[in-house]
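Supplementary Note 3. Input sequence used for the single-chain structure prediction.
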Amino acid sequence: MRLPALTLLILALPITAQAATVKVDVTRFHLLAPPAPAITGASVAVEPADPAAQPELQFGALAAIANAELARAGFRMALPGQAPDYRVRLALAGTSEVVRKRSPISVGIGGGTGGWNGGIGGGVSFPVGGGTRTVTAAQMTLQIRRVSDGSAVWEGRASAIAPGADPISAAPMLLQALLKGFPGPTGQTQSVKVKTQQ
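The predicted structure, written as discrete structure tokens, is reproduced below.
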């Protein structure tokens, strides 16, 4: 059965209306520059950087998102009962604020969270329209440590102002930006643009 053109347009509107481009500030430090051997393809297990600071239920959702992005970057998830080659320690924090919609919009939310000093700034472009929208200033750290000797081989930090009512909604875009072109340049801060449907 063919749907009328107007019906198809209406069905497409919610997705189009909620699309946004988010700028993620990313900093990476690592020991993986050539001629160091690549670690993609190795097995990993995701764990909270601080179990006391990350509720178990929330971290379960965060770990699922991280597993998907790590697999996309070329890593393998360690099987149950299998010792991983690397442990991935992950932390996510943030604060939310209600802002008035406009295009583009740039907000800065002050206050340090998750061990970060000071506030963070960022930008997100919303479609033109009235009313308000909730955005979150989210911060993520991701560290990869070798299981054999406990040494850290890669660490990344990402921050962004993103649409959504809580930091977990920003996790996919933060992880995507962090792992883009893994391992990426070391000792540099870059702005990575990520599209979201949230």
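Helices lie at 5-18, 56-72, 171-179. Strands lie at 20-30, 43-48, 76-77, 86-100, 108-109, 120-121, 124-125, 132-146, 152-163, 188-196.
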